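I have been asked to look over a protein record a colleague put together. What it holds is a sequence and that sequence's fold in token form. Please read both lines and tell me whether the tokens look consistent with the sequence. I do not need a full report, just your reasoning and any doubts. This is what I was given:
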Amino acid sequence: MSKKIAVLGLGAMGLPMATNFAKTFEVSGFDPVAKRVVLANDAGIKTASSARDAARGADFVVLAVRNQAQLDNALYGDDGVVDVLDEGATIILTSTVGVEVAENAEAPLMEKGIGLVDAPVSGGPVRAGEGDLLVVVGAVPEVYERALPVLDAMAGTLVKVGDASGKGQAMKTVNQLLCGVHIAAAGEALALARKLELDVEQALNALMAGAAASFMLGDRGQRMLDAYGDEDVEVKSRLDIFVKDMGIVTDAAKAVGLAVPVAAAAQQEYLIGVAQGMAAKDDSSVIRVIAPEA
């Protein structure tokens, strides 16, 4: 296809998404971190020296940013892309930033003739590279239809949950409640197995074969066991991302008057991890919060 996609943010999710898009579309990427640019170039992705250069002439801008501050900077900062996008361009927001942030972002973009697709993703870097993500979408119908070829390329499962930005974030908030709880629970379970003097590798395999299995246990479990040794665990998702995400979860629940005590307890484990200097470590390192001797 002749459509051009600019991927802004070539981190753990943005880079594999870019390599997947490059199978079908013309792709340009940008990341402010030099190491990520090198990795992108090594993967065959054409990179630009600035976000604006990457986005100039793009039909779609895929944002894979960490939080609201990075989103605002990508759109309207010194290197913000809004002013260089043509009318009819579409921004696809793949990050978890919260309902209100996505809702507030839509109208100013629409006034400039730029569409916004609220499309947070779930599934991890491997599935991102395979185009097999869960993508939950909130977007006005005409913008959704325009972006559908790109969304289809990203998704193994594509679910449109509403006709306005913010609905995708709402669904992702529910998703992150479970993900955050499952990771924390997996850490506690494996730490308990070790304290009970079980073979933890065997315990992990047994758990994954039974009713206690979960995606997060299977995906994070081995990395949690690696954290007990001296191995450097590859950072696929930073621990402080779940501080942000669980904050979004608990704030959303508070806003609608819903108690989420299990999610709140998991949030505290991630906060303790940050306080112990683990913010930039893989989120599987949360096991060290309740097993600091690891």
